[in-house]
Amino acid sequence: MPGRPRLSDVAAAAGVSSATVSRVLTGDYPVASATRERVLKAVRACNYVPNAHAQALVSARSGIIGVVLADVSDPFFSEVVRGVQAAAKLAGRLVVICNTEADPDQELEYVSLLRTQRAEAVLVVGAAPLERRHGAEMARHADGLAADGGSLVYCGRPRPPGTRAGKVVKLDNAGAGVLAARRLLAAGHRDILYLAGPERRTTTAERLAGALGELGRQRVAASRLQVTYGPFNRTTGYREVSVRADAGALPDAVLAANDLLAIGALNALRDRGIGVPHDVSVIGIDDIPATSDLTPRLTTVRLPLAALGQLATRVALGLAPANATTEPAALVERESVRAPRAARGQPHGAERRGRGQHAATARLRVKPSR
Question: Are residues 224 and 277 in the same domain?
Answer without folding.
Answer: yes
